[in-house]
Amino acid sequence: MLRSMFEKVSCQTLDDTKEFVPQTGLVKSLVAGRTIAAASAVTPQESCEFGSPKYFMLCGLGGILACGTTHTFVVPLDLVKCRIQVDPAKYKNIFHGFKVTLAEEGARGLARGWAPTFYGYSAQGLCKFGLYEVFKVLYAGMLGEEAAYVYRTWLYLGASATAEFFADIALSPMEAAKVKIQTTPGFANTLREAWPRIMREEGMHGFYKSLVPLWLRQIPYTMMKFACFEKTVELLYRYVVPKPRSDCSKPEQLVVTFAAGYIAGVFCAIVSHPADTVVSKLNQVKGVTALEAAKALGWGGLWKGLTPRIVMIGTLTALQWFIYDAFKVATLMPRPPPPEMPESLKKKLQAKGEL
What we know:
Layout: H1 2-10, E1 26-28, E2 35-37, H2 53-73, H3 75-86, H4 94-109, H5 114-143, H6 145-150, H7 152-183, H8 191-202, H9 205-208, H10 211-240, H11 250-284, H12 290-302, H13 306-330, H14 343-352
Antiparallel strand pairs: 1-2
Helix pairs in contact: 1-5, 2-5, 2-13, 3-4, 3-11, 3-13, 5-7, 7-8, 7-10, 10-11, 11-12, 11-13
């Protein structure tokens, strides 16, 4: 499946029996209005061709670095957030949550769950960013140049939703172990202890029982994360940045990336928070469904821990986009500019008097 997908999105033959010969002509990139000469697609300043298998592999590696490191960095905040969600009587707010955790477990206790966080979100980042780029190019090719520009927000939403569907399957087992370690006293202190116990007591179901609410949390989150980021970058360059992107230095472009990432992160946290609370409750309590957990929490309970999550997700999202884009800069990957209206569409609109 992935083999045929790469053939479609990269416009290359992967027949192992034949020597690769670059295609001539023009290959349309995802960015409407921009074309790439396939015979000389890799410029001296770029390490790979846009839309090639190497490009997608590097995107996946950038996703591992972006998600694995940032989620591990904010484990203390995530731990307190989860405890507020599942036991608001004991952990009243973010500051009280830190105070209680430090008093009972010391500073070491704030790092509980770091291992499943690192491995789980590294796997998720590989799929989230890598497959997003794959599906974005694939869907753009299916739509055609003009439709890909006109409906680009829907393109971002569809590509990110598809990518996150697979990313959550990779994340779910580690997420289950993380929440058990962080919210169930005495269950386990490490990943090596948590995994065998979950398997012994609940079987494979224990690793995937929260997959559906995880999808409900992560898919809207990721759709907002990518679509809001892409549109915010476009708007920042159009209305805020005082010069065209092509005239901005790489550091200046990364500042725009960070700002757009933080704005997107705030919206992500709000959209996905109720489902996040249900996921935490499901992994803490055995034998309950997502609907039962939601009813038990109540409307107010679903929004417990929102403030620390906004801080956490806003920072996370900004750092992830910054690391991801910085990785592209460091590895000399192609970084297409924000979409521009195709010339063919401009001529059509001008003929109709709409432009």
